[in-house]
Amino acid sequence: MCENRRSMFRLAYLPVLIFIAVTAKAQLVSGPMLGPVELRTAKLWIEVVPGSSADFWYWKKGELATAKRVIKETSVDQWFGPLQFDAVDLEPNTTYEYRFRINNTGNIKPMKSDGTFTTKELWQWRKPAPDFAFLTGSCAYINEPPVDRPGKPYGGDSSIFETMAKEKAAFMFWMGDNWYTREVDYYDAWGLWNRASDNRAAPVMQKFWKSTSHYAMWDDHDYGPNDIGVNYILKNISREVFMNYWLNPSYGFNDKGIYTTISYGDVDIFIMDDRWWRSADNMKDSVNGKPNPDKQMWGKQQIDWLKNSLLYSKATFKIIANGSQVLNPASPFDKLLNCPVEYYDVMGFLEDNKIPGVLFMSGDRHHSEVIKVNRASAYPLYDITISPLTAGTHTFSGPEKNNPYRVIGIDEKQNYGKLSFTGEKGKRKLTVEFFGVKGEKLGEWSVNESDLKYNR
C-alpha cells in the first residue's frame, strides 16, 4: 500500500517537473557561448527572456559537490537579455564542467553539465610554446525572408556551423560581418539589438557556440549600414550591442572603438577597428597630387596603440586583423592602401623598427585568398582573407581575375579557415587550411617563422 502511494506521488509530481523544465528552457533564447578561457578564468554568455534570472554553476570535472554559483537577473523592461558570466579562481590546464539554470527559484543544484572548458597551460618559462589551431571566417548571413531582399536568398548553407562545431580548435575568431543588419535595423537602436539577438539564436549555430571559445571583430554589416564609417549616427549603440554579444578581453580605449589583442601560445592577434574612425570610401585618396591626410581607416589613437603593441610583443607570429583588406594592390574595393597616409605610416614603422613575424588577416571580400606583397629590403607581407561563411559568393573578375599578388585563391564557395601553429622553438610554422561547408578541403598555404624575419 505504501509503495502504491509513493508511485502515485511520483506520477503526480512528474508533470510539475516537466512543466518546470519546459518553462526554464523556454526562457533561454540562445547559448551558452564560451568566451576567452585563460589560465585561471573563463567567460561564458547566454541570452534569456527579459525578466528572467540565470544561475551559472561551475566545478572541476568530476567534483560536482564543489560547484560555485553566480546569479544574474534581467529586467522585464529590457528589450533583450544577454548575460555574461565569469568563472574565476581556476587552476591552469584543468577541465571544468558548467551548467546554467534559468529561473531557479528553488535553488536546485545541477545534476549534470551543459558543457566543459579547459584552462590554458602555464607553459611560459617551463617548456616550448604549444602547438595549437584556431578557426576563422567572416560574412555570416542568416536569412530572414520577410525583411531580406527579394529573390534568391542571400544566405547560403548554414550547416557550415555544424561542421565547424566538430573541429578541434583552441578558439573561433569571427572576422567581421558576423551578422548582417538590414534596412529594418539601420535607423534605430532596437533594430541593432534585435539583429544581434536574432542571429545568435539561430538553431544551427547553438552547438558551435559552446564547442570552443569565441572572439570577434566587426566590419560594416555588423557595425551598421553597408560601407559606413565615422559618420554612422548610431555607432555608440552598435558598440554597446557588440560588447553585450561578444566576450573579447577589451574594447578600445576611452570608450572608442573595439580594438584589442588576443594572445594564445606564441601568437598575438591585434584586432583592428576599421569602422569607428573610417572616412567615407569616396573621399579622395590624394589632393593636389599629395596623399590626403584627412582620409583614414584606423585613426591616430588606434595606430599609436598598434605601434606600441607591436614593439611590446614577443610573439613569433604577430597577426594584424582587419575587416577590410590591408594590402592587395589589384583590388578595386576598399583597403588600407586607399588611405595612403596611414598605410605608408604603418609600413614605414614596420621597416624602421624591423618588426618580425607580421602578417595581416581580413574578411569582407566573399572570396578567400592569400595576397603577397614583396618589399625591397624586408621580408614579404601577406594578407590572409577568408570569406564567406554563409553570405553570397562571387567569381574572381576584372583586375583581380588573374591577380599577380595572389598566392592562392578560392572563389564561388562558402568556406572557413583553420590556422595551425606547429614546430619546435625557432622553427615554428603557420599552416592555413580552407574548408568547405561539409569540411572538404579546398586549399592550403603555409609560411615558416624564418620567412618572416629581417636579415640582420
Automatic annotation (TrEMBL):
Q: Which residues form the PhoD-like phosphatase metallophosphatase domain?
A: 156-393
The superkingdom listed in its UniProt entry is Bacteria
The protein's matches in SUPFAM superfamilies, at most eight in alphabetical order, are given as: Metallo-dependent phosphatases
Give one Pfam family, short name only.
Answer: PhoD
Its name, as the record gives it, is Alkaline phosphatase family protein
State the organism of origin.
Lacibacter luteus
